[in-house]
């Protein structure tokens, strides 16, 4: 199938390499070379040709082969891996892609070839990864099974590639084969750990290295402020600068669970920054994003990129950690796992979840009294029970006092825990200590400038203080830092409340309706704020309908309860909200 000229055609490309080839060569160079040559001559080449393919080129530890169809390529790959488990001393990774290629002087080129090579790199030892185009071609006509690994960001491609792992048709369980470590594995740490690899400078101008390095160093510094996971120091991660790396090898060598990598490209006064977070335990791409900005103030750009990326990365890691422990028996959980289960229930925002969150976080605190985040989030759970009206009115102060005690225990364990200041700030707000609340929440942000929920809390405290413009900015920052946040509705409803209290009812309606439409919105808040806004605009019948929904959530809701629960700096600061609810029919 080789061609000496130029020829563009549709083909299936199979890329394969030998796992641990460098180690094998260092142990027995002559023996490894001879054994691989024999395997290639007697088994692999005949197998490829038997399935209608041909080897395009050999690359020491790997090869590229071309097939007329995706079915032929994947059938060959499956047979190859089955044969490899039957006694030979080599393990292979294989990737298969379908797309246009260009033949030139006996070689093949094009993005399709590049993707096949990247798919091979994503495969586990003994495994096969294919693109969506391959899977779509053969899924119905083959007894092979496919595991969707999701969109994977690969180098030199702007858009993620949908990747599938291939399982034999008789596989009894969906699981990726596990790689045997080829180097000593560092002992696991007692909480998650991350390495930020030096960002690649993809610009034509090599002098832009300073920008890539600056963003990397800022990310390391910013992540180090988040107290619930470890960050590998700069001097270790920069040893990988300029090298092609295998994230699983990085995981083993640095003893980390997560790897953050990315690139920058500058051209024409603009810069493109890409970043991707990888779970190094299985190579799964947890999160990937691309940012395009004007290249004007370098320091401002670095600050913005750092804050934006950290704001996205922290909740993604937290979500993966919660998923790790979701199926475990509560009695078997250690302090870290109990903490993660508690956080999962805390962000689920229902009364049953609230009770479960308090139980798990209390258990985490008892298992490790010095574990500050468990105390800190326990403070927030106590606040949550009051702001969502899950406790009776006469129990609210007791609940807030319990939360304040937990917050101070967190600070006693770690005086720089941002979540502790966050929880304390939210409780101060409910106690009417608005200026103390603002100061505590500003401390949380100073300790962790990417703490989206602290900006949300600050926005509400500023709203109750009558500092409406600042409140809008704080909530906008929350949305910017965590746009995919499942509870972003809470920030939206505070924006609506801020417009409502400033008597800008038209904008209040826009934000209240946006909150109401959010799929995750729960509790009485979205209905109550929308009801008050509609009533202020004279739409009484619609207001009554929304109020009825709010009362389904909190049957005891009343004007006097809301007046006492949300003290404002200005005595009449809550009046537009209460007036609206009174017009809608809320009892005194």
According to CATH, the fold-level topology of the largest domain is Alpha-Beta Plaits
CATH homology-level superfamily of the largest domain: Nucleotide cyclase, GGDEF domain
Q: Oligomeric form of this entry?
A: single chain
Basic shape: elongated
For the record, the CATH architecture of the largest domain stands as: 2-Layer Sandwich
List the helices and strands and how they pair.
Blueprint (H helix, E strand, L loop, with lengths): L5 E13 L2 H7 L1 H22 L3 E5 L3 E6 L2 H15 L7 E13 L2 E3 L1 H12 L5 E4 H7 L6 E8 L8 E7 L25 E4 L3 E2 L7 H16 L5 E2 L2 H4 L9 H8 L3 E10 L2 E10 L4 E11 L3 H28 L9 H12 L4 H17 L4 H16 L8 H18 L4 H13 L3 H14 L4 H13 L3 H14 L6 H14 L3 H13 L7 H12 L3 H14 L5 H7 L9 H10 L4
Parallel strand pairs: 4-6, 9-11, 9-12, 10-12
Antiparallel strand pairs: 1-3, 1-4, 2-3, 4-5, 6-8, 7-8, 12-13, 13-14
Helix pairs in contact: 1-2, 2-3, 6-9, 9-10, 10-11, 10-12, 11-12, 12-13, 12-14, 13-14, 14-15, 14-16, 15-16, 16-17, 16-18, 17-18, 18-19, 18-20, 19-20, 20-21, 20-23
């Amino acid at each position: 199938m080789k061609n000496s000229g130029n020829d563009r055609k549709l083909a299936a490309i199979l890329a394969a390499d030998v796992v641990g080839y460098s180690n094998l060569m260092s142990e027995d160079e002559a023996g490894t070379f001879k054994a691989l040559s024999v395997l290639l001559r007697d088994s692999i080449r005949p197998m490829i040709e038997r399935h209608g393919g041909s080897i395009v080129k050999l690359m020491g530890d790997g090869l590229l082969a071309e097939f007329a169809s995706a079915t032929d390529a994947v059938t060959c790959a499956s047979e190859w891996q089955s044969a490899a488990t039957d006694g030979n001393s080599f393990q292979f990774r294989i990737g298969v892609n379908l797309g246009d290629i260009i033949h030139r002087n006996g070689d093949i080129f094009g993005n399709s070839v590049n993707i096949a090579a990247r798919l091979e790199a994503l495969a586990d030892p003994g495994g096969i990864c294919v693109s969506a185009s391959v899977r779509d071609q053969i899924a119905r006509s083959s007894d092979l099974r496919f595991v969707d690994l999701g969109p994977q960001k690969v180098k030199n491609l702007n858009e993620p590639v949908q990747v599938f792992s291939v399982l034999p048709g008789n596989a009894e369980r969906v699981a990726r084969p596990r790689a045997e470590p080829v180097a000593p594995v560092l002992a696991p740490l007692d909480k998650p750990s991350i390495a930020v690899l030096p960002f690649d400078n993809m610009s034509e101008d090599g002098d832009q290295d300073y920008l890539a390095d600056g963003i990397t160093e800022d990310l390391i510094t910013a992540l180090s402020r988040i107290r619930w996971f470890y960050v590998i120091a700069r001097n270790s991660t920069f040893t990988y600068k300029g090298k092609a790396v295998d994230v699983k090898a990085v995981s083993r060598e640095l003893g980390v669970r997560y790897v953050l990598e990315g690139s920058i490209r500058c051209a024409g006064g603009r810069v493109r920054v890409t970043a991707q977070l990888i779970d190094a335990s299985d190579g799964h791409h947890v999160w990937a994003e691309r940012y395009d900005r004007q290249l004007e103030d370098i320091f401002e750009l670095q600050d913005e990129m750092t804050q934006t990326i950290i704001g996205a990365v922290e909740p993604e890691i937290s979500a993966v950690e919660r998923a790790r422990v979701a199926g475990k028996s509560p009695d078997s959980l250690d302090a870290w796992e109990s903490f993660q289960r508690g956080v999962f229930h805390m962000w689920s925002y229902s009364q049953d979840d609230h009770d479960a969150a308090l139980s798990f976080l209390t258990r985490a605190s008892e298992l490790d009294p010095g574990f500050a985040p468990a105390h800190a989030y326990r403070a927030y759970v106590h606040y949550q029970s009051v702001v969502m009206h899950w406790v009776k009115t006469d129990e609210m102060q007791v609940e807030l006092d319990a939360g304040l005690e937990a917050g101070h225990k967190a600070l006693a364990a770690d005086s720089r825990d941002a979540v502790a200041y966050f929880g304390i700030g939210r409780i101060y707000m409910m106690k009417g200590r608005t200026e103390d609340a603002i100061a505590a929440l500003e401390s949380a942000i100073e300790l962790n400038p990417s703490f989206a929920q602290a900006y949300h809390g600050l926005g509400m405290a500023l709203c109750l203080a009558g500092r409406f413009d600042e409140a809008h900015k704080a909530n906008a920052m929350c949305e910017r830092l965590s746009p995919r946040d499942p509870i972003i509705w809470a920030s939206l409803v505070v924006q609506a409340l801020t417009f409502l209290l400033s008597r800008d009812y038209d904008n209040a309606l826009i934000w209240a309706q946006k909150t109401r439409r959010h799929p995750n919105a729960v509790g009485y808040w979205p209905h109550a704020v929308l009801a008050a806004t509609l009533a202020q605009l004279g739409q009484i019948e619609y207001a009554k309908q929304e109020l009825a929904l709010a009362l389904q959530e909190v049957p005891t809701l009343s004007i006097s309860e809301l007046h006492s629960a949300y003290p404002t700096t200005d005595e009449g600061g809550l009046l537009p909200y209460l007036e609206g609810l009174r017009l809608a029919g809320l009892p005194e």
